[in-house]
Structures are given as structure tokens and as C-alpha cells.
Amino acid sequence: MTHVPVAWAERARAVAAAHExxxxxxxxxxxxxxxxxxxxxxxxxxxGPTPSPPGDPVVEPPSP
Length: 64
Description:
Blueprint: H1 6-18, E1 24-27, H2 31-43, E2 47-50
Parallel strand pairs: 1-2
């Protein structure tokens, strides 16, 4: 099982490109960092990771 489905990575990369994002900041680990890496690999954007300690709750943004 992969942490980040390819479709999610492609959609996130398209959103980053549409909004002319300059840098990615990933908060957390695992899937969050994996998604940032996938976007960066496809787009060349730099990543500013901010890992969270294991067991910290993950707060997801509201759906658009």
C-alpha cells in the first residue's frame, strides 16, 4: 500500500501550479511528507518540512 495515491499527487501538483505556489510546507509525517515529496518531484518546488512527534493528532483543513 502506498501512502500517497498517484491521483492525489497529480491533483495536488495541479492545484499548486494553478495557484503559482513558490514553496511547499508539509506539517506532519508519513503521507503528508510523501505528498509534498511527490509534488516537489514533479514541479521542482522546494519543501519546508515540519515533522510532528508520533502520536500528535492531525488536523485536516475543511473541504472546499
